[in-house]
Amino acid sequence: MDEANYFQFSQFNRYVSIPALKHYFNVSNSYVLSKIGLVLFPWRHKPWSRQQARMATPAGPNGQIVQQQYSSMFLPPRDDLNSPDMYIPVMALVTYILLSVLLAGFRGDFHPELLGSITTTAIAVILFEIMCLKMAMYILSINNDSQLLDLVAYSGYKFVGIIVTMVTSEILTPGRGTGGWVGWTVFIYTFLANAFFLVGSAIHYERKVSCTDFYSFAH
Amino acid sequence: MKYVLLPDSADSSMRAGSMQTVARGQRNRRTQFLFVYSYVIQFVFMWVLSREGPAALGAGDS
């Protein structure tokens, strides 16, 4: 039994790096609230650049430090509001599925197949979006294979706006879904906010931080 | 997203001594794709997902 679990874990670890995944779930309550606010109201936010921390790597033969290498890594979401995380997208996806089923229950139209169909559609949309992005990255000669989790994270923030659209339209125009003028108005706003958030995360960058520097020490 | 779609500009600050530059045309195409992705593709997917709930409800009636 233990060998079977180990085999499954090793197979999973071949495709997804567990330490990298932990980085995306390293969030705090204040970060989650601030990030949701940023996704919904990104208009006056700045700066958009991600913060980095410099780390010394004390490596040297025979215990001597011949050359000290300073490498830097992006701060986790807990310490950097601009860092993408996986917690909000995953929670938003689950909330979207449950909310859709809950609204169906309010109208007396609940049936268990809804859970499967809505979940399938949501995951299919995410997978299709990732496929489109990877194809575009291949066409545009963007060689950056290590950022798949970033793509998944950024594609998941749209569920925050969708949830706000569904809740607002259900409260203000109950029973009409998101097809009324309230639903369309809130949808347009959340869509524009999400698009501005994505573009803002991409366009505004700084070239101030030098990440890897080498300092020689004569010993 | 910039670290994903515009990695060279980000990486140029990541690696001292290996300043990679992208041709202006290539960079313009990447920026255009970024806007298309953010505004067009996201609109389509958000519209599909926000209508999925009501569409599923309608399917439940039949």
What would you note in describing this structure?
The complex is a heterodimer of chains A (219) and B (62). Chain A has 219 residues and is mainly alpha-helical. Helices cover 58% and strands 8% of the residues of chain A. Chain A is built from 8 helices and 3 strands. Chain A has helices spanning 2-15, 18-24, 29-40, 87-106, 113-139, 148-156, 158-172, 181-203; strands at 52-57, 67-74, 213-216. A 3-stranded antiparallel sheet of chain A has the order 1-2-3, with no helix packed on it. In chain A, helix 4 runs parallel beside helix 6 and helix 5 packs across helix 6 (148-156). By secondary structure, chain B is mainly alpha-helical. Chain B has helices at 2-5, 7-14, 24-61. The model of chain B is unreliable at 9-19 (pLDDT under 50). At the A-B interface, helix 4, helix 5, helix 6, helix 7 and helix 8 of A face helix 1, helix 2 and helix 3 of B.
Question: In percent, how helical is the residue content of chain B?
Answer: over 70%
State which percent range the strand residues of chain B make up: under 5%
Q: Separation of termini of chain A?
A: 53 Å
Main beta sheet of chain A, described?
3 strands, antiparallel
Number of helices of chain B: 3
* Largest sheet properties of chain B: none
Number of strands of chain A: 3
From the spread of the alpha carbons, the general shape of chain A counts as globular
Radius of gyration of chain A: 22 Å
